[in-house]
Design brief:
alpha+beta, Acyl_CoA_acyltransferase, Aminopeptidase, 7 helices, 7-stranded mixed β-sheet, 10 strands, GNAT_dom
Length: 270
């Protein structure tokens, strides 16, 4: 493996805990991840994928994504051009650093004092290794608006993002499953969006209401999401989770998910 196949440790880990990654797997999961959560504006600068979305502040929808470790020409100039494009959208230039980011670009950002934040993990699961049963005890709903209302309520997000979320979900091209758990007294308790892209299924927008956490609701929702994906031909599931979300990481690891790679975001020193 090349030096760039070794990932930096997450906050709180010792240097020796850095892990090795399989770059072909990273490339494939990055590609399906972009299709699963599409940006309104997409532009390539060489192999750098620039994604911007005026109506939503999601970091994944507003960042530069280097996709080839060998594409490191004119780093400062290209970042300057990208910064102007981000400014047109009223956003600060943000780079998403993954194992595909050129080491020279990482060194440049280090030298310029760029701020790292929002460390995340990407997990995957071989669905053949899970006994999910054959039947479906929970079916996805068709009402996108109802799903988004529940997601906003559970996540305690600004209701004004509903229009942007609706546009994003409606623009997803692969088949989607919208899962919603509800309680007669509590209302919406859990949601997940499953995006099936050929043999891969992404678990997105996964959220469980605080009032029902640690009661098995999250595991039931995850199983229902995975069961639906497998019945439609998915062989492997994947998801992304922020590194400081310990409860979610525990849930996913107990369900059999294992880490594939890590990423973080960086912005220029202000």
């Amino acid at each position: 493996m090349t030096p760039n196949d070794r990932q930096p440790p997450m906050p709180g880990e010792a240097v020796g805990e850095a892990t090795m990654v399989d770059l072909p797997s990273v490339r494939r999961l990055e590609a399906v991840g972009f299709r699963a959560w599409p940006a309104a504006f997409v532009q390539y600068d060489g192999s750098w994928l620039i994604r911007l979305t005026a109506g939503h502040d999601s970091k994944r929808l507003n960042c530069v994504n280097p996709l080839d470790p060998s594409d490191h020409r004119d780093i400062a100039l290209r970042l300057e051009k990208a910064a102007k494009l981000f400014a047109e959208y009223g956003r600060l230039l943000t780079v998403r650093q993954t194992p595909l980011t050129p080491p020279q670009m990482v060194a440049y950002m280090d030298g310029e004092g760029w701020t790292p934040f929002s460390h995340s993990l990407v997990f995957s699961l071989d669905l053949a290794e899970r006994d999910l049963g054959e039947g479906m005890d929970h079916l996805p709903i068709k009402d996108v608006g109802r799903f988004i209302d529940a997601r906003i309520l559970i996540g305690k997000e600004d209701p004004e993002i509903k229009a942007a979320l609706t546009e994003i979900i409606n623009s997803i091209k692969p088949e989607c499953g919208l899962f919603l758990f509800e309680d007669r007294e509590l209302g919406p308790t859990a949601v997940s969006l499953v995006v099936q892209d050929n043999d891969l299924a992404g678990i997105m927008q996964f959220a469980v209401a605080e009032a029902v956490r640690r009661r098995g609701v999250g595991r039931a929702l995850l199983d229902a999401s995975l069961r639906w994906a497998r019945l439609r031909g998915a062989k492997k599931a994947w998801l992304q989770v922020e590194a400081d979300n310990r409860a979610a990481i525990e849930l996913y690891r107990k369900a059999g998910f294992t880490e594939v790679y890590r990423y973080l975001y960086r912005t220029p020193k202000v």
